[in-house]
Amino acid sequence: MRLEYVCDMELVYREEPAYKGKFLLVRPYGSEEGTGYGEGNGTLTGPKLQGKARWVNHPHRRSDGAMLPDVHGVIMTDDGAQIMFTLQGRTFFEDDTGKQLLHTTFEAEDERYCWLNSSVCVLEGVINSQTLSMRACIYACVHELV
Q: Model confidence over 61-72: pLDDT tens digits?
């Protein structure tokens, strides 16, 4: 298997009046474990995918502080296609920086992007915990075994 670069992704949580902030974290068990919620906007730039995104994240927070993102969203490409996407995996924090290793899937009706329907992608990202923004690179896993 080899990795093929797809795009850069930047995601930013947006302020939500309903919960008076950018991200809500509820810890009901008296420890670090809990559940989060946030919504945001994003931008994708790269050789294979360009556009704007809207997304929602409903992550689980483990008792060790690691976050398990569960992002679902839609990309409106610069050339008019709509693509659904998911991001899931692990985020570990060191100081004010979150290091992300996620897997990414896409679904598209537009035939220009149907190649994404059978692709599994990986994401390497960094979260700035002060601004609640993420920058990442997405790579498609290209099968080469047979």
A: 999 999 999 999
Identity at 115, one-letter amino acid code: W
Nearest to 55 by CA among 36, 73, 69, 37: 73
- Which alpha helices (H) appear in 6-78, and where do they start and end? none
This model's pTM is above 0.70? yes
The full set of domains in the chain, from first to last, is 2-142 (2.40.160.20)
Distance of CA 36 to the CA centre of its chain: 14
Q: How far apart are CA 32 and CA 86, in angstroms?
A: 25
Q: In this structure, are residues 98 and 92 in contact, taking their beta carbons and an 8 Å threshold?
A: yes
Neighbours of 65 (CB within 10 A): 11
